[in-house]
Amino acid sequence: QVQLVESGGGLVQAGNSLRLSCATSGRTFSRYAMGWFRQAPGKEREFVAAFTWSTGRTYYADSVKGRFTISRDNAKNAVYLQMNSLKPEDTAVYYCAARGPRGGITNTRDYDFWGQGTQVTVSS
After folding, report:
1. Which tens digits make up the pLDDT trace of 35-74?
2. What is each CA distance from 33 to 1, 37, 46, in whole angstroms?
3. First to last CA, the chain
4. Cα 112–chain centre separation
5. Which of 54, 67, 99, 117 suits a disulfide with 111, CB 3.0-4.6 Å?
6. CA 63, CA 47: separation in Å to the nearest integer?
7. How far is CA 54 from the centre of its chain?
8. Residues whose CB is less than 8 angstroms from the CB of residue 87 and which lie 6 or more positions away in sequence, other chains included
């Protein structure tokens, strides 16, 4: 099975940066695409960023485009989310997700495996 473990969350002031990490393990068949989602209190879990392992193509939500960057380290089987210019509205629990060879990118239902989440809080 695929296991995903997020880390790197914390409390930062607006305008500062955080780097989230997702340690991955398990069969690569279930890791054709990797994504980051976030969920704020009282809101639905929303798409943040994603990429496909085979092509390296990246995808970003409009709300984070230009501020967040998703990246990977193939040797470490790790996925990262560099978050710059953080805003209070970025406050949420951030989740790492993975899916197999078929599916979309931006919907939570596209993904088969999820990490436990890491809290990001941005103060004004």
Report:
1. 999 999 999 999 999 998 878 899 999 999 999 999 988 8
2. 15, 13, 16
3. 40
4. 14
5. 99
6. 10
7. 18
8. 14, 122
- Across residues 113-119, what is the average pLDDT? 97
In whole angstroms, how large is the CA radius of gyration of the chain?
13
Place of tokens 């704020």: 40
Sign of CA dihedral 40, 43, 49, 52: positive
Cα–Cα distance between 90 and 77 in angstroms, integer? 26
Question: Please, which pLDDT band fits residue 32 given cuts at 50, 70 and 90?
Answer: confident
Least confident of 6-20, 22-36, 37-51, 106-120: 22-36
What type of residue is 95? Y
Residue 43 has which token pair? 């809101």
